[in-house]
Amino acid sequence: MFSFSTPDVWDKIKNIEKSCEEALKLTSPWTVPLEPARDVPILHPKQHPPKKGFSTPEGQARMLHDLASIELQAMELGVRTLTEFPEAPDGFREELMAVTISEAEHLRMCLEGIESLGFKWGDWPVHLALWRAVGPEDSLLDRILIVHRYLEGSGLDAGDTLIRRLEGTAGKETIQKIVKQINFEEIGHVDFGSRWYREICKTDKRDPGVDFPERMDSLRQRLPKRIEPLNKGLRLKAGFTEAEIQYFENLRQDFLKPR
Ligand SMILES: [Fe+2]
Ligand SMILES: [Fe+2]
Questions:
Q1: In CATH, what number is assigned to the domain containing residue 121?
Q2: Residue among 94, 208, 187, 186 at smallest CA distance from 141
Q3: FRET label pair with 208: which of 176, 214, 248, 255, CA 20 to 30 Å apart?
Q4: How far is the CA of 231 from the centre of ligand 1 (A)?
Q5: Distances in Å between the alpha carbon of 40 and those of 36, 65, 114?
Q6: pTM score over 0.90
Q7: What's the gap in Å between 32 CA and the centre of ligand 2?
């Protein structure tokens, strides 16, 4: 059984390697469930309870819970891509397995952090915004762009803001360590997406400079809105070009416009 079909979060982590290995063996695409199984309530982010400040253990645990929900979806999206794209290059699939296992490790760190603060998984609801941003109709280039370059790319900006916000918070050492390690490793995940995006464009004889804005234009309607200021330094490290960063900046400005 693949990890997105198991409800228990700890079972998902325990079985991640086996799940990826099974997915790597597939020779034809697997039909994934409409939604991944959860052992906690799923609610739209707008219906989640208000957040407390980071000065309280509750506020810190809640932040880690929100992050855990993201890491969980990132992990499941990794397995999903492996099951839906058995024809993808072997090198891509092997690297994606490593990224997916790294997401499971991020999830484990968040869950242990929540418990060390005296709370537990399920104390707050979760959302499926990342899982819902992809679809069975995606091409491999769409999927790489959505998951590893758009969603994980904006995660770098948000992670860096969070690290800076935590700097002035007392009793923050546990979460600070977790968030810093995750954000550092996420640079590698986004870079994986940047490298393979260009590699697959090359195989398909597409110019990435033309493909990127066209593909983003066709996908942007279904992407969750990200309005965090862009961290150019991190994005350059993660393989974005100046033109791609400018595209995201323009998109962000559009998202910020009142409707
Ligand atoms: Fe992660
Ligand atoms: Fe990641």
A1: 1.20.1260
A2: 208
A3: 255
A4: 17
A5: 12, 11, 15
A6: yes
A7: 20
Mean pLDDT confidence for 24-43: 95
Q: How far is ligand 1, taken at its centre, from the CA of residue 92, in Å?
A: 18
What is the per-residue pLDDT across 95-149, written as a single tens digit (0 to 9) for each?
Answer: 999 999 999 999 999 999 999 999 999 999 999 999 999 999 999 999 999 999 9
Ligand nearest to the CA of 191: 2
Considering every ligand atom shown, identify the ligand nearest to the alpha carbon of residue 153 and give its number.
Answer: 2
Amino acid at 123: D
Residues that place a CB less than 5 A from ion ligand 2: 74, 152, 186, 189
CA of 95 to the centre of ligand 1 (A): 14
Q: Check residue 53 and give its pLDDT.
A: 85
The Cα 175–Cα 59 span in angstroms is 11
Name the E strands within the chain: none
> From ligand 2's centre to the CA of 258, what distance in Å?
31
- DSSP lists the bridge partners of residue 42 as 126
Cα 126 from chain centre: 14
> In the chain, how many domains are there?
1
What distance in angstroms lies between residue 75's CA and the mean position of ligand 1's atoms?
Answer: 8
Per the structure, the complete domain to which residue 76 belongs is given by 3-256
Residue 229, pLDDT > 90, answer yes
Distance, CA 258 to ligand 1 centroid (Å)? 31
